[in-house]
Amino acid sequence: MWVSPEDVLLAGALWITERANPYFILQKRKGHGDGGGGLAGLLVGTLDVVLDSSARVAPYRILYQTPDSLVYWTIAHGTSRKEITEHWEWLEHNLLQTLSIFENENDITTFVKGKVQGIIAEYNKNHDVKEDDDTDKFKEASAKFRKLFGMPDEEKLVNYYSCSYWKGKVPRQGWLYLSINHLCFYSYLLGKEAKLVVRWADITQLEKSATLLLPDAIKVSTRINEHVFSVFLNINETFKLAEQLANIAMRQLLDNKGFEQDRSLPKLKKKSDLDARAKSERYRALFRLPKDEKLDGHTDCTLWTPFNKMHILGQMFVSTNYICFTSKEETLCSLIIPLREVTIVEKADSSNVLPSPLSISTKNRMTFLFANLKDRDFLVQRISDFLQQTTSKIYLERELTGSLNSSDDEVSRITVIEVEPLQLMKLFFLSAQAKEFLKEQAWKNHFTEFGQGVCMYRTEKTKELVLKGIPESMRGELWLLFSGAINEMATHPGYYEDLVEKSMGKYNLATEEIERDLHRSLPEHPAFQNEMGIAALRRVLTAYAFRNPNIGYCQAMNIVTSVLLLYAKEEEAFWLLVALCERMLPDYYNTRVVGALVDQGVFEELAREYVPQLYDCMQDLGVISTISLSWFLTLFLSVMPFESAVVVVDCFFYDGIKVIFQLALSVLHANIHQLLGCKDDGEAMTVLGRYLDSVTNKDSPLPPIPHLHSLLTDNGEPHPEVDIFKLVRSSYEKFGSIRADVIEQMRFKQRLRVIQTIEDTTKRNVVRTIVTETAFSIDELEELYVLFKAEHLTSCYWGGSSNPTERHDPSLPYLEQYRIDVEQFKGLFNLLFPWANGAHSDPLALRFFRLLDQNGDALINFREFISGLGVLCHGDLTEKLKLLYKMHVIPGECAKINADRIFLLFSPRNQPRTGGKLNTPEYRHYLKLWNEETKPKRENTKDLPKLNQSQFIELCKTLYSMFSEDVAEQELYHATATVTSLLLEMGEVGKLFSSGRKELLTEGKPEPSMGRRDAAEPKTSQEDRSDAFVPADLENKPSQDEGSEQLPPMQDIKLEDSSPKDMGTSSAMLISDDETKDDTSMSSYSVLSAGSHELDEKLQCEDIADDTVLVRSDSISNGERGNRPHGGGPHDRGLPHSTSIDKDWAITFEQFLASVLTEQALVHYFEKPVEVAARITNAKNVCKVGRPRLSTSDYEISLSG
Fold it and tell me: Looking at residue 676, which CATH number applies to its domain?
């Protein structure tokens, strides 16, 4: 490729000159190509790898030099001699003559540089190459990465780092490449090469480790190996990037939406993009902002705080819809200003006391003064741009709302859903106490001093008030504020009502589960002992299930939502639930409660660190895993008295998940002595249950609500009362050092473990389900499952013919979670199936796929895949031939047979009649029928449809292509020709019977077709030869006349001309008239198509020349090829319309089987044992050009000299 000219001082160092003229030199790198260049070549290769020289990927170059200059300029690089030679020849033909005209060498240099840069610009324009920030060095590294590891262009390199890879006890210095989907390492030292490729989705552990020998190292673990990398220049940057990429991979495994969200990754992501993504995630978590908010930038500044008359040092964050501030001291002050609330942004006058100030005013008459802004003008411009966008959004929403409101009033009255406008708590409890009044006053004073609403200053005093308990009347408002749900509700007016309206009357699995759990949601509370509360709960849960079908509904959501409804209006409760499920408790409420399992692992780590004396005991008893799920999923609401648990919810909305961890550790710490004395998990659970039942809230104005959990405990001595406020404060004092960013780090580590454990469980369950249905061993099935899954993932990474989200759905049963389409199947077919033979494999793979795709959705699951592979690897001769035969039957025929069986099962004659009612015996009858039907039955060969003439031709083509690369190729061709001849004669005999039957039916009298027999003169020998192959339905019949009525009807297709005189020739011709005119162009199909016995001589084995390959796709004439596309079924693969097909001609499977059995070569081929283990091993290590097939977890190309 042409490159921007760069100067080179030493043109001869480490390069060999191959061509030269007065202005240009073509050079090759020492050590490249044949011979390797001896010791010098080895040293050069090692240097290139260690120093990251571009010569590793581009071993050829062209230099420009004027005759009197000592400076050379690189103007082109080449990966191959062909590429560099093309550039050289272009220079000789287009530039050499022109350069001789110039007199000044500087002019020549300027001209050459300009010309090369012009070529590059023209290339970029023509190939739509956009300028980006990638340096030439990074582009070279990307090209090297793709070349070394065989990656396609879609696999984008994110970054690469110099490091050492520890192979045994020997460090290998080289380069670590981190791409979107893979971690790769390459080293080349003194002629020895080492490669490593690990898929991010296969990593089970990723951690920084420090030992005496390796103070800074990164350990990457997979299911089968551990890899250690060390000697990094910047280990923190490398580890952080690896962590981000592994996290993305886990998200894709966990949730099929992960692929949708990250479909843009291969196209856009560079390291800077991933850094921006990570910063946005931290920003959203810190200020509880909506999931789609993206950070635009941040800057150091000071904020004037009127409540203490100080300038607080901190950082300002600006995003599309928000301006946020947090102090350097974490708890000192934080602030969130939505741009929808902003009225004025203005630059104030600078002074020595207040340099570069910026004033922001809001609708509730608060003014915020920022100062010490480094680039104030640019910042104001950005905020103004975002403000303009926000204002236009608000106007648009008003117009939409106005147009909806001004529509037909009658219609709107009918469609409006009545949503509960009040908090349920206010409807049932209206009492107040002195303590409650004092709390309300304290909060009102706080609002006066620090502001009220979303723009409130959040300080240490705010936290103190939360820890003392939020007043009942303010709880809903403050939950909305602290959770950030208020922002989503404000920006989505009318969303909830629309969702309720759309979801009304709709039924699915989620709504069924919701109905089942409605009356189990706080049944002890009066608000949910009547239809009003139940209806509100139903609406909120159903609306959320329709908003987020990936979650739908999960147990424990009903308990949390019922508490939200007590303190918030219905729409507010909905948005609080959205904040909980999608931001504050990520992945908690999905079908596999992954988030809760991840936090369970985090809790175990924290317990080991903070209560080490109790940790071993708890692990032995297995209590941590039992308690943490119920505690975390319901935020202690299901294990604590209600009035105490809501205090925990108060703290949770303010401080996040760390509160739950702190409280859980406090409960363990408070019961440490009793737990150490427990002998089993039941005793430990009793201790903890009694303690939590005793947690009280004496400040609560609510009447005591009986707690169901307390009813289940024993009748022993009640535990002394524990004050909830003291317990919460104690948790902050003892365990308040737990930081949110540390929890996120722990979550990442546990997420790898949990998701890989789920994947392993899925694999085991799939294998356990089908191991009894196949002859493969458990180990073989596990290996095949990993290959099947890897093929699915590879297609998700680099594109495929179908959407990956359609093929991977974790909510489906295990067998259905991973499915592959036809393109993916072709890849696995070539690697694993014994009938694959290179160039001719795709049409056969397509036929095979259609046969396996039983439900016709163009996807096959692992069971279907194994059923097909099992027949080819472990089936007997008959099973293999039956499979081959069925592949060529009209699509849908075989499926129709099975469908007919199922239809018959439920047909009226199978239904017992007992007065129109179904009683128990009837159910048993149906179950018995169903049980019989679901048992695997050996398919009766007589049920298989007959093969017509065009299908038979396709079958012959398949046979010939299957043998094209076999060692006994010629012998198999001859055997196939013999079998084909035999089957053609059988088809003719069958046609005679069929024709006779037609005449009987049309004339109404049993008169044999003598004319037809006369035309087929040697009928006797033909019939004698095929006596053994009479179709099954003709066996034991005394005569054709007698059995004619019982013959199955053939396809209802009539020939244009089926007169007896044409029987031996035209009725069976399979090539067009044009083709027959030229013997040299005659396809081998013409040999097979001649249905008459007169062509027997043509089919003698000894007459087949070596250069004649029967029924190969490349021997079809152009006209025929155009009408027979690859991969079609018999309808779209049929012969051209000009070809005469005999529609009465047909053979049965029994005839096909019996004919094959007459040829020992074919019998040997189909009975040949298959080395399954060898095929699996080969498939694990094969890399197709531009598309590596990665192994079970990772593969290594170990040292090669």
Answer: 1.10.472.80
Contacts of 492 (CB under 8 A, 6+ apart): none
3-state secondary structure 1114-1141: HHCCHHHHHCCCCCCCCCCCCCCCCCCC
Q: How far apart, in whole angstroms, are the C-alpha atoms of residue 723 and residue 1187? A: 63
Phi first, then psi, for residue 172 (nearest 5°) are -115, 110
C-alpha closest to that of 1084 among 1120, 1054, 1033: 1120
Beta strand pairing status for 695-696 and 157-167?
Answer: unpaired
Contact 44, 29 (CB under 8 A): yes
Number of helices and strands in the chain (H, E): 50, 27
- Looking at the structure, tell me whether residues 230 and 116 fall in a common domain: no
Q: Does residue 328 fall inside a structural domain? A: yes
Q: What is the pLDDT of residues 226-256, one digit of tens each?
A: 999 987 778 888 999 999 999 988 888 876 5
d(CA 591, CA 256) in angstroms, rounded, equals 13
> Per-residue pLDDT for 808 more than 80?
no
Please write the tens of the pLDDT for every residue from 350-396: 888 888 899 999 998 899 999 999 889 999 999 999 998 887 666 55
> Taking residues 565-569, what's their average pLDDT?
93
Name the residue among 642, 658, 802, 654 with its Cα closest to residue 708. 642
Q: What is the DSSP letter of 581?
A: I
Q: What SS3 state is found at 1090? A: coil
The tokens describing 152, both together, are 């396609």
Give the separation between CA 944 and CA 878, rounded to whole angstroms.
13
Contacts of 783 (CB under 8 A, 6+ apart): 1176, 1180, 1192
Q: Nearest 5 degrees, angle CA 13-CA 84-CA 107?
A: 75
Q: What is the dihedral of CA 184, 188, 193, 194, to 10 degrees?
A: -30
Gyration radius of the chain over CA positions: 39
3-state class (DSSP) for residue 818: strand
In sequence order, the 6+-apart residues with CB closer than 8 A to the CB of 466 are 478, 482, 650, 651, 654, 655
Please state, in angstroms and rounded to a whole number, the distance separating the CA atoms of residues 557 and 324: 31
Residue 1044 confidence class, pLDDT cut points 50, 70, 90? very low
> What confidence score (pLDDT) does residue 428 get?
59
548 and 564, same structural domain?
A: yes
Q: Averaged over 1064-1079, what is the pLDDT? A: 36
At residue 163, the 3 state secondary structure works out as strand
- Host domain of residue 56: 2-126
Q: Is the pLDDT of residue 935 over 70?
A: no
Tell me if residue 177 falls in helix, strand or coil: strand
| CATH code of the domain in which 445 resides | 1.10.8.270
Spatial distance between the Cα atoms of 866 and 416, rounded to a whole number of angstroms: 53
Least confident of 135-144, 692-701, 947-956: 135-144
Dihedral sign from CA coordinates of 69, 72, 76, 81 = positive
Is 3 exposed, middle or buried, given 0-12, 13-18 or 19+ CB atoms closer than 10 A? Answer: buried
- pLDDT score at 1015: 37
Three-state SS for 361?
strand
| Closest to 254 measured CA to CA, from 578, 764, 548, 594 | 594
**pTM above the 0.85 mark?**
no
* Residue 891 is assigned to a structural domain of this protein: no
* Domain shared by 213 and 179, yes or no: yes
Type of residue numbered 231: V
Q: Using CB atoms within 10 A of its CB, is residue 121 exposed (0-12), middle (13-18) or buried (19+)?
A: exposed
Q: Report the distance separating Cα 298 and Cα 312, nearest Å.
A: 16
Tell me the CATH number at 162.
Answer: 2.30.29.30
Cβ neighbours of 857 (radius 10 Å): 12
Q: Which two tokens stand for residue 7?
A: 């100067």
The number of distinct structural domains making up the chain is: 5
